[in-house]
Request: fold
Amino acid sequence: MSDYTKGIHRSGRRWFVFVYLFIYLFPIATSVYFDAWPTWREFLAAAIGVVPLYWAVGIVEAFSYMPMLGAGGSYLGFITGNMSNMKVPVALNAMESAGVRQGTEEGDVISTIAIAISSLVTLAVIVVFIVLMVPLSPVFSNPALRPAFDNVVPALFGGLMIAFMARTPKVATPVIVLTAAAFIAVPALKSVYPIVLPIIAVATIFYSRMLYKKGKI
Amino acid sequence: MDRTFSVNHPLLFLLAGIAVLVVAVQSAVFLRKAWKRALEIGFPKERLKKIAVSSAVFSIAPAIAVGIGVITLSGALGLPLPWLRLSVVGAIMYELSAAETAATALGTSLSATLSATEFSTIAWTMTVGITTGLFLIPVFCERTLNGISKIGMKDKKWGEHFTNGLFFALIATFVGNGVADVTKGGAGLVSALVLVVSAVVMGICGLLRNKLGWKWLNDYAVPLSMIVAMIAAIPLTAWVC
Reply:
């Protein structure tokens, strides 16, 4: 492991602890300042509907995305959030256009640069929205524009699908076609997609291994 | 400072602002480190600039969607909490449903005026829900990546197929998500058509790059296909719905 990668792991862990403190400062300070601590009963009633699902999703996402984003990309991406709808696609796109592979130091630095830029752009756009909320609201709440922003995720992944199918079509094509067919046959899979993702990942790796051993890829 | 609770109290803006600033500094620090390392290992500066511009362009449309999420949530939760939750750790898909679920469990709703305790309970629930899975990153990131790196070192070609497999699975899952409701018509059909438009534009970009030698398209093909497909969603919705 290079000194750069070791340094990223070290500073990534420190930043995690630091940012965690600030994230929790919000509910702590709110509760203290307004004397508004939730009772355990209220908290558990609210948390029971949210926390188990989100913990499961969090665990699955952590192990699914870490190998794709590398060290710097993971430490930064998970802190800044919006992973599947922004950080993961932006990193994939940057690595693809730079012609680098994940699992290499080159892939790691490009993924980190893409995610850092994406985070800064997002933070700036949100601040612009907050500052210009009054004049912007009618524009973006216009029902005519709504479909464009409701369809960001399919618009992102259609293009990425073609870019990655070109890499190893013998693996990508059947995996994408069969997964799409399974989702169409059982639309309920949509609501549990974070759980479906690692299952597809394991199946894809087995399939790749089989083709690789036969010398077909 | 006035201690009368308001979802837009200045203290809440201050708390959210500090956390957002910390994350902005972290992004800048990581960007600097990665940029410096990229130059050391031989990436030309111009190439890095192109990647940075392409990543910025790529991020604008999804960032606007996140901004709309902040505005949507601000009606009930004020601006500071959605600002914090969607800038740090959170995700647009989770935060709205987390806030709604928590409000419903408390016997209120996001369309009602929240008391200080209801607001703080929702803030606690959203924070605990979204941050717990995160502790896995500092604990397991190094070990996980070392394990994968060993696969790559043993057999480089198989290492590439292994990580490609993960990418394909991710893309397949989101393509599945995009087409899942195609048979229901309406928004489900629009989502599937948007995916197809994006794929077609990407295919055309690939052809132009290969046939006409437009290599610059490499950096902008995915952002371009995304933006064209998002614009196409507007007439497609008018046509289908």
Notes: Residues 3-33 of chain A form the longest helix (31 residues). Chain A touches chain B through 156 residues (CB under 8 Å).
